[in-house]
Structures are given as structure tokens and as C-alpha cells.
Amino acid sequence: MNLHIGSEIKRVLNEKGITPEWLAKKITTSRRNLYDILTREEIGTKQLMQISKALNYDFFSLFQDESEIAAMVNDPLSYYENLPKPKPTVLVSVSLDGEETTLRFWFDKLTKINAAMA
């Protein structure tokens, strides 16, 4: 998805007939900073939340793929079954006694475990 958030904010401002100056005051920033925001492709979530509240518009919804949302809602089980599965992991704790033979033993054993999991 190729979304330019500044353009989207500008679009909503125009649709609602709200001036950038009003929005700047509402989110307690300067006019200059707001005009900078309107040229950005990206924005921080905190700032986007402030703008969303001020304009009573959910800008976060623009980032969601509608077909993905429909799949989650209509058939959540198959949606989650089709997500990539994480690789199996094993946590191993080894106590070494400073002997080279012990280190070599565990190195060989862990190498075999790692190969078996691949």
C-alpha cells in the first residue's frame, strides 16, 4: 500500500472545510509545523492520534488492508491458520566446568540439535 499520510490529512481537512490553522491550534503546534506534517509521507502514531481526535476521523483505518480485515472477521480460524508459522526454538541451559572435553561435548550435542530442527 502506497499511502501519503500528509495528503490524506489535507484531503480530510478540505472535505470538512477546516483550515490548517484551526488544526494547528487544536493539536497545539505551529502553523509551520502543521504545513510540514501535510507534506510528510509518514507520521508518528502519537501525532496521528491527536489529529484523528481533532478531526474526528480514523486515519489508522487507512493503513489496513480491507481484504485482510474481511478475512479475519469472516473466517478467523483459516486466517490465522494461513499465517506463517514461527520456526521451532529450543532453550538450552548448559553448566560448564571449565574442561575442554565438556565444552566439546555440549558443542557437538547442540550442533546436532540445531541440525535436527532445520
Entry keywords:
single chain; 434 Repressor (Amino-terminal Domain); 7 helices; mainly alpha; 118 residues; elongated
Secondary-structure blueprint:
Layout: H1 5-16, H2 20-26, H3 31-37, H4 45-55, H5 66-74, H6 76-81, H7 100-117
Structure description:
With 118 residues, the chain is mainly alpha-helical. It folds into two domains: 5-63, Orthogonal Bundle (434 Repressor (Amino-terminal Domain)); 87-118. The chain is built from seven helices and no strands. The protein has helices spanning 5-16, 20-26, 31-37, 45-55, 66-74, 76-81, 100-117. The longest helix is centred in the last third of the chain and has 18 residues, at 100-117. The model has no long low-confidence stretch (mean pLDDT 84).
| Tally of DSSP helical segments | 7
Q: How much of the sequence is in beta strands? A: under 5%
**Oligomeric description of these chains:** single chain
Helix content: 55-70%
Radius of gyration: 26 Å
Give the biggest beta sheet: none
Number of domains: 2
Query: Terminal Cα separation, in Å?
Result: 33 Å
- Average pLDDT, all residues: 84
Q: Quickly give the CATH architecture of the largest domain.
A: Orthogonal Bundle
